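Posted in: Structural Biology > Protein-Ligand Complexes

Title: Requesting predicted complex, flavin-adenine dinucleotide in pocket

I'd be grateful if someone could produce the 3D structure tokens for the following input. Sequence and ligand are given below.
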Amino acid sequence: MTVWIEVDLCTGCKRCIKACPYGAIELKDGKASILEHCTSCGVCLEVCKEKAIKSDAKPRTIPDFSDRKGVWVFAEQRYGTLSKVSFELLGKAQELAGTLNQDVSALLFGDQISGLSETLIKYGAQNVYVADDPCLKNYRTNAYTMVIEELVNQYKPNILLMGATHIGRDLAPRVSRRIGVGLTADCTELTIDPEEKILLQTRPAFGGNIMATIANRFSRPQMATVRPGVMEAVEKPGNKGSVIQHKVEIKEEDIGTKILEVVMEEKKGTDICDARVLVAGGRGVGDSEGFKVLHELASLLGGELAGTRIVVEEGLVPVENQVGQTGKSVRPELYIACGISGAIQHRAGMMNSRYIIAINKDPRAPIFQVADWSIVGDLNKVVPEMIAQLKEIKANG
Ligand code: FAD
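-- Reply #1 --
Done. Output follows.
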């Protein structure tokens, strides 16, 4: 596609120069001029009031997607246990499907896992597509991709959601490429556009400094991943669902990978995504001695220790306990932020906490904007005082 200027029509108003996201238009002798690095994105065409910018691109027509129905959730399970994010996605799927007046369906893959369908129905699935076969026992990219491709081609869903887990981050891009659709990763919000009835997928962009909303008009299903802890699981008591068994006819030699052994990682403590109380520390905590005090507070409250990226990079908190955009999204009952400034990338992971207490010596720290209780002070005094008072309460029964 080529973009060019009809110089006789151009008034040199500079609107196109301001609008061009690539800085690919300049003013030459009072007229707009397209530079070599123009990407032909077409933004300038829309802003030119004189219709002086021309393009040879044919307008793209939106295909008829009236046969595309249903909001699907890939229900991830490992060793017969469904991941929490599957329920959270079903919660969001119920809301989206309600707006579209369509069904919620779950995809359940594995070996001897059909019994899990009931749980998915309890969390809002109206259909559960089950692929129960020994070749799907452990996750393998090709095998799972092939089954999803078959199901998508057969049942034509409108929306397909996956958790941004280790499996989801591997599977979703492979599926999206295979079925030829776009994918928005790590969404923090999903809604339906009231007019176009398409999925609006919101996610942080440019290092988390802006939120971008992405929509896909030209292909189906609309695919998105969401990190665990971002959406809310909603039980649907009395929900009735159908279980549809999908026959798997994949040959072992087509899968391409063979699992020789599964070695389980030893788990220390509770996953911060499951903790009811989190005591999180930032750079203000200082050193490992400071973190020992935070750890004591967490233990007294029956919670876990978490941290910002900075303290994880300094080796003060394990990487699996990092909260934020590149860490985990958590939703505890109580989040105590100690010596944390509240950068947007950190807030992205803890905003869903029920109650937030922030302790910071700087009264202008951004963390106070999201805190329910703000304690302006030195954490080296505040945290030991909290510990002392908690011990006293415990001692008095
Ligand atoms: P600082 O910003 O240095 O804040 C320290 C705070 O401690 C200050 O507010 C200070 O007033 C206070 N303080 C100091 N001493 C005391 C004291 N004695 N008592 C009380 N308060 C005290 N960050 C994350 O956390 N998670 C992420 O997932 C993440 N992902 C990122 C992704 C990208 C692409 C980028 C660019 C950045 C990311 N970051 C992430 C980093 C983020 O931008 C911040 O740099 C980081 O969160 C700041 O950590 P902090 O609050 O510990 O440190």
